Amino acid sequence: MIYITGDTHNTIDISNLSAKNLKKYCSWQGRNFKSITYAMVLGDFGLPWYDCPVDEKGIHPEKKDDLYLLQWYNKKPFKILAVMGNHDNYNMIEKLPEVDMFGKKVLKVSDNIFYLKRGEIYNIEENIFLVLGGAQSYDKEWRKLNLNLWAQEEWTVEEELACLKRIENYGTNVDYIVSHTGPIEGISCVESSCDDESCRNAFMKDPNVRFNTKIDKMMTYEKWFFGHWHRDWGYNHRKESKYIPLYSAGVIVDERKF
């Protein structure tokens, strides 16, 4: 059983994956939280946040927040799968060892924690996921490059072309799309300002939103899960909407297909 939730921001919002929160949202969906095999975080996972040594086993944190979080996650009875966001240390992510999982490559943080690669298509428990990720930091003028801001939050042209090639090879029909920010139609679910054309165009200045919107127009899928906007609108509308923005709430994906 796959549990999907929003941004955890290193230790700031780790309660999203606390037993209390998992029990609550699983119970509300008629499931036992002990059945969770994978918990997917929709970007801004934030581990590792600080630079630290990396080897084939994963990261070896030296800062107390990262060390505490690593130990906390490693005790979980399920594996954590992180989508890349904008508030993630991409310089460290790029150093993580690649390992085989779901018949593809993922990036290993530890034996229990993995980053899903942007632009990849994974079969996770018989559910096909197209994984996107990234977002433009609107507060970048208050951040410092390579300290709490990373250029890799925006896709390169090469990454986009590689993703499109995978879609061409696989086909345009998947079960779910997961990303950090959403496509413009998904963002409009939580941002009423999208009703104004000038505001809508402002959101589309984010190259990640533009690429997501391009993907949205070409793919057939059941649900699109995304974080970034710190809203749980998607949980309350999970049955009727194909766009599922999440923050602290969690939605279950399994053989019951909602």
Write up what this structure looks like.
This protein has 258 residues and is an alpha/beta fold. The chain has a single domain, classed as Purple Acid Phosphatase, chain A, domain 2, CATH 3.60.21. It is 26% helix and 21% strand. It is built from eight helices and 14 strands. It has helices at residues 19-28, 64-74, 90-93, 157-170, 184-187, 197-203, 207-218, 233-236; strands spanning 2-5, 38-41, 54-55, 58-59, 79-82, 98-101, 104-110, 113-116, 121-124, 127-131, 176-179, 223-226, 243-245, 250-253. The strands form three sheets. A seven-stranded mixed β-sheet has the order 6-7-8-5-2-1-14. The protein has a five-stranded mixed β-sheet with strand order 9-10-11-12-13. It starts with a strand and ends in a 5-residue tail after the last strand.
Topology:
Layout: E1 2-5, H1 19-28, E2 38-41, E3 54-55, E4 58-59, H2 64-74, E5 79-82, H3 90-93, E6 98-101, E7 104-110, E8 113-116, E9 121-124, E10 127-131, H4 157-170, E11 176-179, H5 184-187, H6 197-203, H7 207-218, E12 223-226, H8 233-236, E13 243-245, E14 250-253
Parallel strand pairs: 1-2, 2-5, 5-8, 10-11, 11-12, 12-13
Antiparallel strand pairs: 1-14, 3-4, 6-7, 7-8, 9-10
Question: What would the average pLDDT be, to the nearest integer?
Answer: 95
The largest pleated sheet is described as: 7 strands, mixed
The SS-based structural class is alpha/beta
Low-confidence stretches: none
> DSSP helix count?
8
CATH fold call: Purple Acid Phosphatase, chain A, domain 2
Distance between the termini: 12 Å
Domains counted in the coordinates: how many? 1
The sequence of SSEs as H and E is EHEEEHEHEEEEEHEHHHEHEE
CATH architecture designation: 4-Layer Sandwich
How many E strands?
14
Coarse morphology: globular
Percent range for β-strand residues: 15-25%
Any idea of the CATH class?
A: Alpha Beta
- Fraction of residues in helix: 25-40%
Radius of gyration: 17 Å
Task: Give the spatial strand order of the biggest sheet.
Answer: 6-7-8-5-2-1-14
